């Protein structure tokens, strides 16, 4: 295996969530799925049920035959590491199979958790916001969003897709209110009127909405925009505390809530380090998450290093998700440092033991 293809693998763990039956509600049709189904909240039940974290590089959605073109586009004229030459059609095909298997695993845990609302934590790369307005933190409280997955490849038929996703406006409003009460300064949006590009909501939201099947499942989403690219940037410690606040707000609500961190790990597309992947950094981050030591990531961006610039800053979304689950170890599904994706691709999830035990009890009683 090429030295660049260092990996962090974990054993398969079968999902433990069972589908719920919601009385007097028809949820078979996504268009009729209620935003806030009724729940009987038992003492101590935690409503933040699941966390998912995934990279969102174009290669995840692109046909493998289009990887070389995308690689050339994103690396530009940056000299590549020697390990990049070891990637070829055969290794790319193998990597694509691994990616697809990882996505299937994440889709499965989302389906099993069956959340009523999914918070997506992602950044905006001058897609909705522009240089005139770039909030550190924003919550979209509208009823629906739409956007394109790969607008840069719109010249190729069948590659770029426009997707529509409904949003949990009521929960989003409660989330924004709770964050303000937790001393977070939040920009609130009720309509999506891009100030920058005309493609709608950015790829940090549309791509996982597509490749994780979120749009097809009809799960209402709450887009949370977290600045990961443009100065001034939030500290890792602030991101972790954001996750803590999200958990506290979610656990006070009647909805079953899931969180999705979109982006990362190390990458700098079209930047001075394009094509270079910091495996040491990525492995360190993943190991901390696996060990339930996400709080140790709070000082991650205190050193101004070139490797932290560009897309690597999206690790902030992962740190936020880690804060939402505190000391709970993450299940690291896979790590694939792939030059043709110019990214250290990673896939992980968290399941709270309280919810796992609750679902097992329901299965035993049925």
Automatic annotation (TrEMBL):
Q: Which SUPFAM superfamilies match?
A: LigB-like
GO terms (molecular function) for this protein are: ferrous iron binding; oxidoreductase activity, acting on single donors with incorporation of molecular oxygen, incorporation of two atoms of oxygen
Which intervals hold domain Extradiol ring-cleavage dioxygenase class III enzyme subunit B?
81-333
Alphabetized UniProt keyword annotations: Plasmid
Pfam families given for it? LigB
What is the protein name for this chain? Answer: Extradiol ring-cleavage dioxygenase class III enzyme subunit B domain-containing protein
């Amino acid at each position: 295996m090429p030295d660049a293809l260092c990996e962090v693998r974990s054993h398969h763990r079968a999902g433990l969530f069972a589908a719920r039956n919601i009385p007097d509600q028809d949820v078979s049709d996504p268009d009729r799925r209620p935003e806030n189904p009724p729940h009987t909240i038992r003492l101590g039940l935690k409503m933040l049920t699941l966390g998912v974290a995934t990279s969102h590089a174009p290669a995840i959605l692109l046909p493998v035959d289009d990887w070389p073109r995308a690689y050339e586009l994103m690396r530009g004229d940056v000299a590549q590491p020697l390990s990049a030459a070891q990637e070829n059609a055969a290794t790319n095909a193998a990597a694509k199979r691994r990616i697809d298997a990882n996505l299937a695993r994440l889709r499965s845990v989302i389906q099993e958790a069956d959340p009523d609302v999914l918070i997506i934590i992602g950044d905006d790369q001058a897609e909705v916001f522009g240089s005139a307005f770039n909030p550190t933190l924003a919550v979209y409280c509208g009823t629906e969003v739409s956007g394109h997955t790969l607008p840069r490849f719109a010249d190729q038929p069948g590659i770029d897709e426009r997707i529509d996703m409904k949003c949990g406006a009521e929960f989003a409003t409660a989330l924004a209110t709770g964050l303000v009460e937790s001393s977070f300064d939040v920009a609130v949006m009720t309509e999506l009127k891009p100030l920058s590009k005309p493609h709608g909501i950015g790829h940090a939201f549309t791509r996982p909405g597509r490749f994780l099947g979120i749009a097809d499942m009809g799960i209402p989403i709450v887009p949370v925009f977290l600045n990961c690219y443009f100065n001034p940037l939030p500290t890792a410690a602030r991101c972790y505390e954001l996750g803590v606040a999200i958990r506290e707000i979610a656990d006070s609500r009647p909805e079953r809530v899931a969180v999705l961190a979109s982006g990362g790990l190390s990458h700098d597309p079209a930047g001075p380090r394009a094509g270079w992947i910091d495996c040491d950094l990525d492995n360190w981050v993943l190991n901390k998450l696996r060990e339930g030591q996400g709080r140790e990531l709070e000082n991650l961006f205190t050193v101004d290093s070139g490797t932290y610039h560009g897309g690597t800053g999206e690790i902030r979304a992962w740190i936020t998700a880690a804060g939402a689950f505190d000391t709970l170890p993450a299940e690291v599904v896979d790590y694939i440092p792939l030059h043709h994706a110019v990214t250290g691709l990673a896939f992980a999830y968290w399941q709270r033991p309280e919810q796992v035990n609750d679902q097992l009890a329901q299965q035993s009683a049925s």
